[in-house]
Structure formats: C-alpha cells, structure tokens
C-alpha cells in the first residue's frame, strides 16, 4: 500500500473538489493538504458541472467559427491528394506534375505561419482573422475555377497564405 503522503488526489473529477488545509495533522508549522468536497452550491458531486453555463453565446459562436476554419484548412491541405489523377486528366498533364499544386500550398502555408503573428500584432487578431477567412474562401473558389495547372498553383499559393493566417490567428482569437 502506498503511504498517504505519496498518494495523489482521489479519483474523480477535479471540479467537485478543492484543496483545504488540514490543521493538527502534523507538528507545528507543517500542514498537509487534503481533498475535501466543495461547499459551493454550483459545484457538487451530485450534479455535473455545466462548462458552458458561464460562457456567453458570442464566445461559443467565435469558438465554432475558429473550429470550422481549422477544419477547412486541414481538409484543404489533404483533399487534393485524392483528386490528383482526375485533375491531371482534366488539365492534360501527367499526374506526377500535379504534385506541384499540393506542394505549393503546403510550402506557402509553412512560409507564412511566422508572418501571421506579426500581422496579428500589427493589425489586430480579429481583423486579420476575418481577412484570412476572406482570402482563403476567395482563393478556394479560384482553385475550383482553375483551368490550367499554373493558375491552380498560383491560387493554391494564395490559399496557403490565407490558411496560414487563418489557423495561427484563429488560435489567438480564442
């Protein structure tokens, strides 16, 4: 059996417990901390804690928007890989040459991630996030309208710039 001092807090949620000093358990000047059920009416072991109860509707909406932006960027970075053979046929090029469309997006994403922090500091996180969503969306439409490989690559580079700003600044918005 593990000695009492080496045991961690009791199992269960941390929300319904808090640390309290236990006087008299040790010699003068020393106190041992132990877990005690919370006496706060909103936090009890009999009722689950509603995490969203103190969160405003606007804050939840912002979190959903940022989550959707992160999902779009992650999906967009990988979705083209499955469509490369079909796109190569449409553009009239070999499938191997289509890798430049995938690589250009990932490269511009990696290059502009460091710049997103500076841009957010200079112009404000919400302004940059809104602009990044606009750039990403417009360039996604341009990628869908591309009729040549070079136009697709240029659109993917611009889309990568929007994606870099959108993901990093979106985390700052939260």
The unreliable regions are 12-22, 32-47
- What share of the residues lie within helices? 55-70%
Rounded radius of gyration (Å): 26 Å
Total separate domains = 2
Distance between the termini: 44 Å
Average pLDDT level = 78
Number of helices: 4
The backbone outline, from C-alpha atoms, is elongated
The helix/strand series, from N terminus to C terminus, equals: EEHHHH
Number of strands: 2
Structural class by secondary-structure content: mainly alpha
Summarize this structure briefly:
This protein has 174 residues and is mainly alpha-helical.
Any descriptors?
2 strands, single chain, two-stranded antiparallel ribbon, 174 residues, mainly alpha
Tell me what you see in this structure.
By secondary structure, the chain is mainly α. Helix content is 61%, strand content 7%. Helix 2 runs antiparallel to helix 3, helix 2 packs parallel to helix 4 and helix 3 packs antiparallel against helix 4.
Secondary-structure blueprint of this entry?
Layout: E1 17-22, E2 32-37, H1 57-91, H2 99-123, H3 125-145, H4 149-173
Antiparallel strand pairs: 1-2
């Amino acid at each position: 059996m593990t000695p009492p001092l080496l045991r961690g807090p009791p199992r269960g949620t941390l929300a319904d417990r808090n640390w309290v000093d236990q006087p008299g358990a040790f010699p003068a000047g020393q106190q041992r901390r132990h877990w005690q059920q919370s006496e706060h009416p909103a936090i009890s072991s009999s009722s689950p804690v509603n995490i969203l109860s103190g969160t405003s509707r606007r804050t939840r909406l912002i979190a959903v928007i940022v989550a959707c932006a992160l999902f779009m960027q992650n999906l967009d970075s990988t979705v083209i890989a499955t469509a490369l053979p079909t796109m190569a046929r449409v553009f009239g090029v070999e499938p191997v040459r289509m890798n430049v469309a995938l690589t250009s997006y990932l490269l511009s994403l990696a290059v502009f991630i460091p710049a997103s922090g500076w841009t957010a500091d200079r112009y404000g996180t919400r302004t940059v996030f809104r602009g990044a969503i606009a750039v990403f969306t417009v360039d996604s439409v341009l990628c869908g309208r591309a009729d040549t490989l070079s136009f697709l690559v240029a659109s993917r580079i611009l889309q990568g710039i929007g994606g870099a700003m959108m993901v990093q600044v979106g985390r700052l918005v939260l």
